[in-house]
Every structure is written in C-alpha cells, then in structure tokens.
Amino acid sequence: xxxxxxxxxxxxxxxxxxxxxNCSYKTSINNLQWYRQNSGRGLVHLIxxxxxxxxxxxxxxxVTLDTSKKSSSLLITASRAADTASYFCATAPSGxxxxxxxxxxxxxxx
Amino acid sequence: xxxxIQNPRYQVTQFGKPVTLSCSQTLxxxxxxxxxxxxxxxxxxxxxxxxxxFNNEADTPDNFQSRRPNTSFCFxxxxxxxxxxxxMYLCAxxxxxxxxxxxxFFGPGTRLTVL
Lengths: 110, 115
What we know:
Largest interface: A-B, 25 and 23 residues
Shape of chain A: globular
Mean pLDDT of chain A: 92
Helix content of chain B: under 10%
Largest sheet of chain A: 6 strands, mixed
Structural class of chain A: mainly beta
Order of helices and strands of chain A: EEEEEEEEEEE
Strand content of chain B: over 45%
Helix content of chain A: under 10%
Low-confidence stretches of chain B: none
Order of helices and strands of chain B: EEEEEEEEEEE
Number of strands of chain A: 11
Number of helices of chain B: 0
Oligomer: heterodimer
Distance between the termini of chain A: 36 Å
Structural class of chain B: mainly beta
Number of helices of chain A: 0
C-alpha cells in the first residue's frame, strides 16, 4: 500500500478561496514533500518540511506537519485558476526512496 | 536554464514493438530516476541510477530496461510493449550528496500510447 495518502481525492473551489489538502503516512520519515503536477506534465517541487519542523510557508503555501498523527496539510490561500493541478505528497521512510501518494485533484473555478 | 528534458513528449508504438524513451539533464545531478504514472495514479518508481550504479525496483517487469551512458543521459527501453504499458513516463534527477529523501527535479514526461 502507499506510504502517503491524500485527502480529499478531488477538490473544487472558487477563485479567491483557500484550498486545504491533507496527507497521511504510515512510517517514520525524514521529511515530507509536496509536488504539483499540471495536466500532462511532470511534477514540480513545491515545498519540503523536515520531521523536526511543524509549519513552513512559501508564498501562498502553508504546510503543517504533525509527526504524532503522521499527517500533513497543504494550504493554498487566495487560490487562482492557475493553481488547478494535481497535488502529491511524498515521503521517504527511513533508508528508502521517495514514495508518492495518490494525489488530490484541485480545480479552481474562475 | 538548467533542466531535465525528455524526448519525445508523445510516443506511439505498436503492441510488441520495442521503444526507447530518452531523458537528458543539464543539472549535472548524479542520481536519475524513471517513474511510470498511469492516469489518476501516483508515480511508480521503476529504477534509478546512482552514478553508474543501477538499482531496479523489485516489482519492475523484466520488459523494462535502462541505460545510462553518461551523467547527462538516461534511456528507458521497453522491449515488448503491452497495452498495460501505456502511461506517462517521468524522468527525475537528484543532486550528488543529497539523501534519497530530498528534492527531485522532474522532466515534462513522455506520454506512451500502445496500439
């Protein structure tokens, strides 16, 4: 089974609203990463949060990490139509390589 | 700009006809990965190179092979494509000295269609 699982599978919002996506994982991690994938394209790295960090910001992105609950959330504030994409969390269980979750498909309606 | 390039972006092949996908990078990264991604699914790691050391995932079919003739280039060979091999194939790189769990840099992908 996947190390990371995103929730919800799909999210549709209006431009200007905030979007929140969640990721849960199973084993201890060194860090957790979020990637974005536009339709038919490769993945783009958004943000990395280390296991000893609880929150991280990058522009309109805010990521939180709760290692006790083995979960993370990605918040996109003031969403834009251009934010429409699939968002994947990725984790690397100790000594292993990155494993991606199934992703959340975000649609931002103009 | 430094980047990861994949060619072609779209590849159509016939059932059973060998096909090669290519990836090149100008980042001078030592680690290169090949992923298979089917529609609405997570990318699945097929194999990776750490420099010239090849590392195959346990569940990667024998039908998939890879070559890395130098730091810049990596190839994915599918010896006898089946209909189930139709997917997006993603190449990614990672810098030397980083751990496996650090950031990866992806190319735009090659969409493979098998007729």
